[in-house]
Amino acid sequence: MKQKRISKQETGITLLALVITIIILLILAGITISVITGDNGIIGNAGQAKEETEIANEKEIVEKATVQAMGNNRYGNIEESELQQQLDKETGEGKTRVSVIRKKYIVQFIDSERMYRIDNNGNVFEYVYTDLPIMESGDNFNKRMADYKESILTVTVLDNIKIPENAYQIFDVSKEQNETVKAWIVENSENANMYDLYIGGEDGVEIENCSNMFYDFSECTGINLENLYTEKVEIFDNMFLEDSKLVELTTSPTFVTSKATSLQYMFYLCTKLKSIDTSQWDTSNITNMFGTFRMCQSIESFDLSNWDTSNVTATDYLFQHCQRLKTIYVSDKWNNDKVSSSANMFQGCLSLKGAIDFDSTKITIAYANYTTGYFTLK
């Protein structure tokens, strides 16, 4: 009897030891799996190391191709076609794609789908495409600037939010009030009573309505909109209305009018502005051109050769009192068929000459052509 009791006791100890051993093995197995497959595990770290190596190699390829492309360019610039040729030599044709996104050269590796941005100095950075930050409407922006707009000398839209320490005033001008678009005022370096206004967002600034945006910036002499994206804008009404001291307006291919329906009084009373680059504007959806260039007294020519006016219904005062205006270039895209309102369209255009010389008794839509009117075919 004593031996049996000892045997049962030993068996109990053996089973307990076995269970403990199994538990320990399971714990160790879990730890091992975690070490191998966890976020910071061996496999994860190996994968991360591999990706980092691939990124380094791709960046090196882009940097080398960029240096060669800039070296081959007579001006030391980066050209899209030249950069693509160098990349094809480095990787083989069809392995990379060069494109211009938001005015920046972007290289994409087809297999990895990774992208790299090249700045104007040839520096290479990883690039991830994101939607542009959206600023508030032109009306709201103008109201926000009410206390300062008559003291603003220049306006510049930037592709960053690098606010200097000497910023006099800072505003959140994002549509959602989430600080993705900022505006700030800096004292002008030559005139302590005037300010320079900057608007900035990462990669640039998108806007959806430009109505009244710079209305009555009465002392402003220069506006640079190279980083303002307007592809969603339908209304440009009064955008520069009464900017009577504006001398220089800078735009770029980002200034898009393809969805625009109205340009009413857009440049009315910009009396000192000497040129407006409108040659590439898509006006196919425009219906309202009421007074668009009214009293642009310093402009001598308009290149409207790309303008499709087939949907325009109103051209009243379109060129009224453009006293120095000599030439209006158009193409066969100019169409007056839907125009129902065109009062004083050419009134006061004393220097204008197309198929005929200006005649103060001939100022209606009937003379908006290049065969018997004031236009010049281009």
Folded structure, characterized:
Helices cover 23% and strands 17% of the residues. It is α/β, with parallel strands linked by helices. The strands form 4 sheets. The chain has a 6-stranded mixed beta sheet with strand order 6-7-8-5-10-12, with no helix packed on it. It has a 4-stranded antiparallel beta sheet with strand order 1-2-3-4. Strands 13-14-15 form a 3-stranded parallel beta sheet, with no helix packed on it. Strand 2 (104-109) and strand 3 (115-118) form a beta hairpin.
State the gist of this model:
With 378 residues, the protein is α/β, with parallel strands linked by helices.
Relevant terms:
15 strands; single chain; 378 residues; disordered N terminus; 17% strand; alpha/beta; six-stranded mixed sheet
Profile the largest sheet.
Answer: 6 strands, mixed
Number of strands: 15
| Overall morphology | elongated
Helix percentage range: 10-25%
Strand order of the largest sheet: 6-7-8-5-10-12
Give the radius of gyration: 32 Å
End-to-end Cα distance: 120 Å
β-sheet strand percentage: 15-25%
Extract low-pLDDT stretches.
1-6
Total helices: the number is 4
